[in-house]
Amino acid sequence: MSEPPSGSPGFSTKSDLAYSRVRHLILSGDLPPGSVLPQASLAQTIGISTTPLREALRRLKQEGLVDLDAHRDARVRPLDAAEARDLLELRRSLDPLAAGLAAQRRTEADLARVRTALDGLDALDSRPTAAQLESHHRFHAAIHLASHNALLAQTLDGLWVKTDRYRRHGLEAGRSDEEREARAAEHRLLFEAVRDGNADTAADLMRRHVETSLGARSLERLDRPDAR
Asked: CATH classification of 14-76, choosing from 1.10.10.10, 3.10.20.90, 3.40.50.790, 3.90.226.10?
């Protein structure tokens, strides 16, 4: 199992520690959708008792990442077409809004942050590492922050994290070199539209980017049993 990224802040309670560790294992794919959560061994690995772990699992259930029942084993929530569609619909509306606002409101510091994130993008293969996924999160988060709408940026950050499981699922079908090059070109064009203050272009580019995203591919696979 992979470890959470280094430099994580300290935890005020054992429940917070368990929540962070298990959440990372789920979102990284180390605990795949539908898998049983072995509470005794998980607690031992983390170095806590099962009581704070159970509290953490309740929090993860509220986030839709865990199915938890008093009379059954806890499990990682399976991927779900309805959730994939919900996430895609929200991102289809909110990501273009953030990109358009970023083009209007970005500062030089914002542009430097987006440029640095663009330079650090790592192409995603069929089994992406946490670092590869984080490089794409960093780029999009830089655009969200450049919108200077804190609530919008916070909302999109939460949507991004919840979509990571679906990104991994979308990548399982493979990706051609042409597709990877097209995504890289879209990222460059997004940066240029934000840099140049072209709000309409930035919003349109981001909308197409979301509509052809890995989350959209995952939804297509979930809607077609033969393509899963």
From this structure: 1.10.10.10
CA–CA separation, 216 vs 218, rounded Å?
A: 5
CA distances from 36 to 10, 31, 42, 130, 162 (A): 28, 8, 11, 22, 19
What is the C-alpha separation between 163 and 193, in angstroms, rounded? Answer: 25
**Terminus-to-terminus CA distance in the chain, angstroms?**
25
Q: Structurally, what CATH architecture does the domain formed by 81-227 represent?
A: Up-down Bundle (1.20)
pTM of the model: 0.83
Q: Render pLDDT for 9-39 as a digit per residue (tens, 0 to 9).
A: 456 789 999 998 998 888 888 889 999 998 8
Residue 137 in contact with residue 97, Cβ under 8 Å?
Answer: no
Tokens, residue 204? 């349109």
In sequence order, the 6+-apart residues with CB closer than 8 A to the CB of 204 are 96
- Residues across the chain: 228
